[in-house]
Amino acid sequence: MAIDAMPSRGMASRNPPNAGSALLGKLVYNLWDLKDRSGRLAEYRSLSKSQWMPAAQLEALQLARLNSMTDYAFRHSDYYRNTWPAAPRFERLSELATLPLTRKADVRVHRDALVSGEFPRDELVTAKTGGSTGAALELFFDTVCQEKRNAASMRSDEWSGWQPGMLVAALWGSPPVPQTLKEKFRNALHDRVFYLDTMCLDDRSMRDFAAQIERRRPGGLFGHAHSLFVFAGFVEKSGIRVEPFKSIVATSMMLLETERIVIERVFGCRVSNRYGCEEVGLIASECGQPGGMHINSEHVIVEIVRNDGSPAAPGEQGQIVVTDLLNHGMPLVRYAIEDVASWSAVPCACGRTAPRLERLVGRVADFLVRRDGAMVAGVSLVEKTLTAIPGVDQLQIVQSRIDGFELNCVPSGAYGESSAHALTAALVDAFGSGIDVQINLMDRIPQEKNSKYRFAICRVNTGGGSR
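Given the sequence above, the corresponding structure tokens read:
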């Protein structure tokens, strides 16, 4: 998933006064952490060392933290006390698979029972996530967990070329807006980020954002993967010159290889992909070497399992199951995240020993279904189609019934009747003859309510409820 070569445009032309600004930002970043006594930078320094641990030592660290977390969960969470016969004690990480899965429906129904009884509710950080289904989950985190998660993001940022205190331009939906004087002061000197709200992603907002980038010269660019692609396409088509960034981080949704190529070409910088979720924070990140994303092993344990619950072999697709080793506020043990991925079997050339996800295939909800019941990875089909068919810039596949599909297509100048025939043929090849394919040409792929994009949507009831 990573690319091993930097684009041809160099970094030498970046305006030198930014170096002083970055040093000031880094100084303020460190002083602010000392003031808050958050421990974020201490954890960051610890993670910077542990990333080079031998694999056996890293697994021993995980095992110790796993036993501590499951013991805590049994003592303080009614849900686990009612689910497990006793507090588990593991000798090997593989024994974790003996525990039952915790599913999103469990979190939704048993939210209060999952929350630790040790914390007053008003001392916990709260968040909501709706995901792709629109069914919201309310989540709770202790503050120590939150600061350690921030430290993991800092390490991932560093892998991408980011440094603490660097000014960052971000594309995000409904971004935080500083209101009080303290919040404005913090954003100017500590957070050092300015936003393009992706809930209003149009030519005017993107042109204004590009002007801000030219004026303020941030070192980093961050945002939803597809929003970065849309912005890159606008910059390129508009003939706007943007100097190369030092760091670009794509997150929050699938980064298609076709989109990565465009982003890197336009902004002259390698894109670093990362994977996580609101429930457990950062799960995996690219380090700069090709072949996958390293697991944030100090903070989470990741399993990839087959439908029967057995562990998937390297290269074999399976569902991701995550155990959070940090959050005492609302422990999540063997949480089925409803994403599909595969392990890499190749050691990383960077020297880090944490296992790598070879490929994210997509969410369970993004899998389309054939008439014989076989599942088709919608994101993979979209990526293959974009690569093979001229004239198609963006594509979204919506399966409304078992034999009915809508293709929301953003065409390029090369789009024509042959493109439409090729799109239909690709669907017939994947799902068989006799299907109905409707192609809708549009300027942009529609966003979800959370400002993200979905490349494949299945609305077929497969017997397990609405997807």
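The first strand starts at residue 125 and ends at 129. Try to locate this feature in the token string yourself.
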